[in-house]
Amino acid sequence: MAITYADAGVDTDAGDRAVELMKAAVARTHGPQVLGGVGGFAGLFDVSALKAYDRPLLASSTDGVGTKVAIAQALDKHDTIGFDLVGMVVDDIVVCGAAPLVMTDYIACGHVVPERIADIVRGIAAACEVAGVALVGGETAEHPGLLAPDEYDVAGAAVGVVEAADLLGPAKVREGDVVLAIGSSGLHSNGYSLVRKVIEVAGWALDRDVPELGRTLGEELLEPTRVYSADLLAVARDASAQVHAYSHITGGGLAANLARVLPVGLAATVDRASWTIPPVFELVRGLGSVPWASLEATLNLGVGMVAVTGPDGADAAVRLLAARGLPAWVLGVVGFDDGARGADIVRGSKGVHGGAVRMTGKYRTQ
């Protein structure tokens, strides 16, 4: 008996159809720097502009969406998950002040449904337009027998550039700097294993209408990640804002991620009472009796990014962010690290030997 690739569960024709459906969306992310269009073995990007840099530094990042894809699959809605992917990747790059140049994506699935794959990539392309990054390549891999027919996972990688003199991070942070919060659009794309477990144990359906959220549970959980990069780059380039560092509040929560961009010897004091926790986070906490410590170390609690500015730049930074539709407020200040230990003090995260963050006060809920 002759066995073909199709007999093994791989449909190359479906993959080709998916590419045709997504080509126009991908092309909209391309400027004159992109050569070759869609379908080449490698994406080409003209970096002649880097000749004007004194010392260009390339910044790279890679990430996925995590188990949020399970929500998209359960709701059979796939055109927003791309914002989660792009946000997770390019907003790690903007933390050091780099402008994202190019991005690639990878989709692994049990079975290629062209319309579904095209929806995913259209979402990625739309988010790339918001971020100002060119989507120059991607891959869709069919893994029958490894993934169920309706299952998929997504990942991506991006490369950006920053002038060495404009590099943001711990080296620029000083005692007396101000810590600003920049609001999230919701859960973003972290902590969904906890969220999904809470919902499972509670027995809640995704189509359940939740009055305190003003929509169904599924709609809230699938709310796309806010993509910050273009706006934060613009603010960082405005001298009046005096931006010294950014932190992307992803896995690990606010304190652990902020500590990564502070230098050894300094500690940021953050006031939990400086903002009101959005309803979805209080819902997760209450529904699952999740301890505050676990919630704080897992979810963003309404803070998607943090900016550390010079003391004279904080007001300007808040105004500039507000003008770009980004809610921002003062979280606290940077001072000297007294070496104290305790449950409310975080030092270092993900292998970074950095500064410390001291969480004070109690969260306010609606």
From TrEMBL:
<dbReference type="InterPro" id="IPR036676">
    <property type="entry name" value="PurM-like_C_sf"/>
</dbReference>
<dbReference type="GO" id="GO:0004641">
    <property type="term" value="F:phosphoribosylformylglycinamidine cyclo-ligase activity"/>
</dbReference>
<feature type="domain" description="PurM-like C-terminal">
    <location>
        <begin position="174"/>
        <end position="336"/>
    </location>
</feature>
<dbReference type="GO" id="GO:0046084">
    <property type="term" value="P:adenine biosynthetic process"/>
</dbReference>
<dbReference type="InterPro" id="IPR036921">
    <property type="entry name" value="PurM-like_N_sf"/>
</dbReference>
<dbReference type="GO" id="GO:0005524">
    <property type="term" value="F:ATP binding"/>
</dbReference>
<keyword id="KW-0547">Nucleotide-binding</keyword>
<dbReference type="Pfam" id="PF02769">
    <property type="entry name" value="AIRS_C"/>
</dbReference>
<dbReference type="Pfam" id="PF00586">
    <property type="entry name" value="AIRS"/>
</dbReference>
<dbReference type="GO" id="GO:0005829">
    <property type="term" value="C:cytosol"/>
</dbReference>
<comment type="pathway">
    <text>Purine metabolism; IMP biosynthesis via de novo pathway; 5-amino-1-(5-phospho-D-ribosyl)imidazole from N(2)-formyl-N(1)-(5-phospho-D-ribosyl)glycinamide: step 2/2.</text>
</comment>
<dbReference type="InterPro" id="IPR004733">
    <property type="entry name" value="PurM_cligase"/>
</dbReference>
<dbReference type="GO" id="GO:0006189">
    <property type="term" value="P:'de novo' IMP biosynthetic process"/>
</dbReference>
<dbReference type="GO" id="GO:0004637">
    <property type="term" value="F:phosphoribosylamine-glycine ligase activity"/>
</dbReference>
<feature type="domain" description="PurM-like N-terminal">
    <location>
        <begin position="55"/>
        <end position="162"/>
    </location>
</feature>
<keyword id="KW-0067">ATP-binding</keyword>
<dbReference type="InterPro" id="IPR016188">
    <property type="entry name" value="PurM-like_N"/>
</dbReference>
<keyword id="KW-0436">Ligase</keyword>
<keyword id="KW-0658">Purine biosynthesis</keyword>
<dbReference type="InterPro" id="IPR010918">
    <property type="entry name" value="PurM-like_C_dom"/>
</dbReference>
<comment type="similarity">
    <text>Belongs to the AIR synthase family.</text>
</comment>
<keyword id="KW-0963">Cytoplasm</keyword>
<protein>
    <recommendedName>
        <fullName>Phosphoribosylformylglycinamidine cyclo-ligase</fullName>
        <ecNumber>6.3.3.1</ecNumber>
    </recommendedName>
</protein>
